[in-house]
Write a structure and sequence with these properties.
Elements (H helix, E strand, L loop, with lengths): L1 H13 L6 H10 L39 E10 L2 E10 L5 E7 L4 H14 L8
Antiparallel strand pairs: 1-2, 2-3
Length: 129
């Protein structure tokens, strides 16, 4: 869009018009000429791998109490120095984060530390999935 503003700037000056970026955006939007830029996101999951895929053992379970089912996830956080990786353990009943670890690599250690924190703070893990 900057290129469009710069290329039209000479034409606006010749016509003795003062049009800034926001005004140009508003005019384009009013006449439905503004296109939205597609946002690209990182592809982080590859489900078409050759490794064994485990069955979903909690699919038919009704979660009725805390510490019955935990779920884990890793989320990527973009920083100025690259990526950080946040490993989370969540209790499916209370939706409370029971364990976490922030690390600068995707190695197994971060997930294990998050699990150990969750196990340390859990009161009863009998029957935990």
């Amino acid at each position: 869009m900057r290129k469009l503003v710069k290329s039209l700037d000479d034409e606006f000056t010749k016509a003795n018009l003062k049009v800034g970026r926001d005004t140009l955006f508003n005019v384009l939007r009013k006449h439905q000429m503004l296109t939205l830029r597609k946002k690209y996101s990182s592809r982080t999951t590859n489900s078409l791998h050759r490794f064994y895929k485990y069955k979903n053992i909690i699919k038919d379970i009704e979660v009725t109490r805390p510490n019955q089912v935990w779920a884990s996830d890793i989320t990527y956080i973009r920083t100025v120095k690259g990526f950080c990786y946040l490993a989370l353990i969540t209790d499916m009943y209370s939706r409370k984060i029971v364990g976490y670890d922030l690390s600068d690599s995707l190695e197994l250690n971060g997930c294990v530390r998050a699990l150990n924190k969750a196990l340390y703070h859990a009161k009863n893990t009998k029957g935990l999935i």
